[in-house]
Structure formats: structure tokens, C-alpha cells
Write a structure and sequence with these properties.
The chain is of the alpha/beta class. It has 7 helices and 7 strands, in the order βαββαβααβαβααβ. Strands 1, 2, 3, 4, 5, 6 and 7 form a 7-stranded mixed sheet that branches. The longest helix has 29 residues. The chain binds guanosine-5'-triphosphate and magnesium ion (MG). The site of guanosine-5'-triphosphate has 23 residues, from helix 1. Belongs to the small GTPase superfamily. Rab family.
């Protein structure tokens, strides 16, 4: 258990928001962290992040969520953005087919820059705009299955599934981290040779008082 005098959370998870410009990344972030929505939000310039602390599988988890522009020319330095991220929230707009077709590009970018074990949640946002739908929910499910991603349709405007999407990705991250911690403990226990230390990667194992999975 973390020492709650020193730290108010058991785990810190960095999650990055990605996806084309205008799909609603910044509004998903403001809905999740401040319960706010802005109909006329401007394109993000550079990088912003916001945090929210919540309970996940009985643990106190601080989610640190990073947001940048979908548009290339406004983007922050890619490697710094992805560094230390344990989760990615990949957003498309259900009313714009192109943003869905570009999901494969974003997955490639993740493959190139992020940790190979990063947990990915794909979100088809703006589910409130049913009359303008250009991507069926089934297409979303099919792609998610093919690429082994979690998937939900969300609406930042109506606050539909935003909470659930973050809970799902955070629980998935927590389950992976705690399994790794257990495996590291078992490896340490079976290492009985005298004088032979076991080195545990903090980022992987979560086996310290403060399990930080974010490199800020
Ligand atoms: N109807 C509807 N509109 C939304 C929703 N989410 C975002 N929007 C609108 O879509 C527009 C773009 O939203 P942003 O959150 O700024 O998009 P972004 O992905 O952060 O864009 P960049 O910062 O340029 O990459 C804004 O006008 C929002 O009000 C939603 O769930 N439903
Ligand atoms: Mg934005």
C-alpha cells in the first residue's frame, strides 16, 4: 500500500489522447476531468494535460491525461508526448469517415513511438449526432477486433460512455501492471542463490510504495 501521508494515490498512469483534429479529444478530456463541454472549442496548440484521481479495482489511481493537436503542424514533439504513456485513447468522429480511416495511421504512430505494451481504447465520439453518422458501430467493432483494441462509442456532449471508457482502460492497465508485479515477486522468491540480487523495473512492476507509471 502506498503511504497516504506522502502520496494520495497508489498508481499514476499516463494516458495520451490521439486522433484527427476536431474529433473531440479536448472535450473528452474536459468532460472526464472537469465535467465540462465546450461547443466552440479551439484547436489545441502544443500540449495540455489534466488529471483526475479515481478508484479503479479498489485502488486509488491518478490518471494523467495528455492532449495535443490532431493537426500535424500544431503537434508537440512526438517522442516526448508518448514517453512513459501506459495507455492511449484513440478517438475518431462517427460523422467523419476520414477520421475513422485514419485510425490505422494513428496505430502506426503508436507502434513507432509508444511502448509496445501500451493499452489502447478506441472511441467513436459524437454518438449524439446519430442523423449525421458516417461510420456504423459495427465497423468500429470490426476494426477494434482486428487490431485487438477496446472500443466504445462516446459522446463528450451528452457525457455518454466517457467515464466508462476511462474506467475500462484504467482497469486494463491496472490488471497488466499488477500481473507483472506478481510475476516479479515470484521471480524474486524463486531466486534463492545467496548474494544474487533481483532487479525490478519500477515502471513495469509497480512493486514499490509509489507505483509511478509515468515519466514526468
Ligand atoms: N455533437 C458533438 N460535438 C462534439 C463532441 N465532442 C466534441 N464536439 C465538438 O467538436 C469540435 C471539436 O472538438 P475538440 O474537442 O476541440 O476536438 P480535438 O480533437 O481536441 O481537436 P484538435 O485539438 O484540433 O486536435 C468542437 O466544436 C466540439 O464542441 C460530441 O461528443 N458531440
Ligand atoms: Mg484539442
Amino acid at each position: 500500500m502506498a503511504n497516504r501521508v506522502d502520496h494520495e494515490y497508489d498508481y499514476l498512469f499516463k494516458i495520451v489522447l490521439i486522433g484527427d483534429s476536431g474529433v473531440g479529444k479536448s472535450n473528452i478530456l474536459s468532460r472526464f476531468t472537469r465535467n465540462e463541454f465546450c461547443l466552440e472549442s479551439k484547436s489545441t496548440i502544443g500540449v495540455e494535460f489534466a488529471t483526475r484521481t479515481l478508484q479503479v479495482e479498489g485502488k486509488t489511481v491518478k490518471a494523467q491525461i495528455w492532449d495535443t493537436a490532431g493537426q500535424e503542424r500544431y503537434r508537440a514533439i512526438t517522442s516526448a508526448y508518448y514517453r512513459g504513456a501506459v495507455g492511449a485513447f484513440l478517438v475518431y468522429d462517427i460523422t467523419k469517415r476520414q477520421t475513422f480511416d485514419n485510425v490505422l495511421r494513428w496505430l502506426r504512430e503508436l507502434r513507432d513511438h509508444a511502448d509496445s505494451n501500451i493499452v489502447i481504447m478506441m472511441a467513436g465520439n459524437k454518438s449524439d449526432l446519430k442523423h449525421l453518422r458516417a461510420v456504423s458501430e459495427e465497423d468500429g467493432h470490426t476494426l477494434a477486433e482486428k487490431e485487438a483494441l477496446s472500443f466504445l462509442e462516446t459522446s463528450a456532449l451528452e457525457a455518454t460512455n466517457v467515464e466508462k471508457a476511462f474506467q475500462t482502460i484504467l482497469a486494463e492497465i491496472y490488471n497488466i501492471i499488477s500481473k507483472k508485479a506478481l510475476a516479479a515477486q515470484e521471480a524474486a522468491a524463486s531466486n534463492t542463490l545467496p548474494g544474487q540480487g533481483t532487479s525490478i523495473n519500477i515502471a513495469d512492476s509497480g512493486n514499490t510504495n509509489k507505483r509511478s507509471c509515468c515519466s514526468t
